[in-house]
Recover the amino acids of this structure.
């Protein structure tokens, strides 16, 4: 039985950097295993959505799992919530939230509250969950922190609308945005009012919270506001087992990615030491992938860390993390049955260490396995892969390519 692994280095692709003499972090990294995969495989570049379109990690992962993200995407919030273990019903509306730092005029000073540690965020979240709203006493909501500054908010009752704007301005130095309804429905109006009250109430409780007083004393930014964005419901998509007739699982720590995979009908594998941060245990993930592959046709292995380094503009760290991914791949290459396993390695988008944001540039892709048509590419990076036999494909093409290689594709036509 043929099997497939899809390895995603989140935001691993980059632009040429002056600091690296015009090279990208992938080009500058020492990466024997990635090069081995390119050498023994077929390479190309991939426009995750389409050329120049900047993907989020959620739309990108949907595309990489074979879905047309432009058609099925219903907002980030629901994925984040599902991925952090919250039960989200089709009627709920969920938001992706950040613990952030604002000044007295509600100007954002730090969108991640100094990447607050999980322990502090958990204690703050527990206090927020207990809040009662005076103007909307019947509101049923759930607030849960996930990793570091990340959190999810789910509004259950009264029946909410996802047609509401973000409170997160998306950058520092700007005021928290006033939440607005995005259509003229009563539901959107009510959801807006509830969110506004929640935001103020959260702010009030957080400002006085002992955890934040302690943080200030230690010179850390207080997590004194919750910024919300990406109101969303669960998308209606055909799960992978049905779509392709395979058993599948995901090895990922990021709750956003776990959420997408869960909605796509994949099993979620918990790995001790996998944190979704640069300190994650790469070897534990490699071992979990090999183990999971024994009982599944398809495993998605996702590493968040490279994207984090890119957002921080930390070029040195991004290179080190690519080298850790390389070591992780070395273990995998040495422990799979190479006669029966295909492996694709890519990034879900470009994260520029210069702009510190996702960009719409294409990403490298290499697929290795027993019967791929090898090309002449011998290095895994943005520029060299562009010379490979896969040429230029879209993100949603990679699953059909893998499904075809492992012999699970059905003929189109007679
Ligand atoms: Zn991403
Ligand atoms: Zn990112």
């Amino acid at each position: 039985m043929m099997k497939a692994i899809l390895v995603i280095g989140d935001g691993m692709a980059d632009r040429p950097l002056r600091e690296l003499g015009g090279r990208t972090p992938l080009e500058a990294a020492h990466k024997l295993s990635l090069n081995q995969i390119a050498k023994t495989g077929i390479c190309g570049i991939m426009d995750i959505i389409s050329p120049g379109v900047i993907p989020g990690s959620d739309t990108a992962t949907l595309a990489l799992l074979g879905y047309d993200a432009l058609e099925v995407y219903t907002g980030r919030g629901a994925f984040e919530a599902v991925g952090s273990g919250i039960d989200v019903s089709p009627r709920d509306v969920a938001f992706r939230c950040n613990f952030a730092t604002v000044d007295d005029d509600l100007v954002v000073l730090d969108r991640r509250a100094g990447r607050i540690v999980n322990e502090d965020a958990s204690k703050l979240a527990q206090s927020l969950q207990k809040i009662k709203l005076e103007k909307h006493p019947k509101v049923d909501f759930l607030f849960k922190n996930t990793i570091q500054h990340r959190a999810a908010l789910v509004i259950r009752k009264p029946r909410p609308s996802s047609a509401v704007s973000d409170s997160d301005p998306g950058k520092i130095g700007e005021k928290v945005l006033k939440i607005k309804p995005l259509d003229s429905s009563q539901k959107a109006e009510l959801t807006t009012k509830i969110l506004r009250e929640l935001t103020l109430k959260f702010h009030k409780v957080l400002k006085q919270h002992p955890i934040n007083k302690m943080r200030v004393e230690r010179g850390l930014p207080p997590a004194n506001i919750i910024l919300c964005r990406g109101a969303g419901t669960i998308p209606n998509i055909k799960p992978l087992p049905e779509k392709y007739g395979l058993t599948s699982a995901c090895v990922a720590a990021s709750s956003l990615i776990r959420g997408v995979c869960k909605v796509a009908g994949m099993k979620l594998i918990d790995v001790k030491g996998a944190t979704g941060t640069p300190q994650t245990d790469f070897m534990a993930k490699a071992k979990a992938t090999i183990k999971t592959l024994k009982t599944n046709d398809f495993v998605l292995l996702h590493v968040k860390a490279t994207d984090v380094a890119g957002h921080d503009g930390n070029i040195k760290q991004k290179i080190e993390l690519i080298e850790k991914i390389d070591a992780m791949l070395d273990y995998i290459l040495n422990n799979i049955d190479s006669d029966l396993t295909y492996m694709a390695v890519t990034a879900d988008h470009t994260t520029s260490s210069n702009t510190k944001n996702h960009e719409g540039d294409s990403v490298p892709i290499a697929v290795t396995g027993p019967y791929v048509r090898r090309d002449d590419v011998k290095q895994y990076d943005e520029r060299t892969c562009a010379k490979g036999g896969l040429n230029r494909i879209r993100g949603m093409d990679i699953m059909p390519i893998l499904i075809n290689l492992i012999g699970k594709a059905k003929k189109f036509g007679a």
Remarks:
- The pocket of zinc ion (ligand 2) is lined by residues 11, 57, 307, 311, 351, 358 (CB under 6 Å).
- The chain has a mean pLDDT of 96.
- Residues 81 and 331 are 32 Å apart (CA to CA).
- The first helix runs from residue 25 to 28.
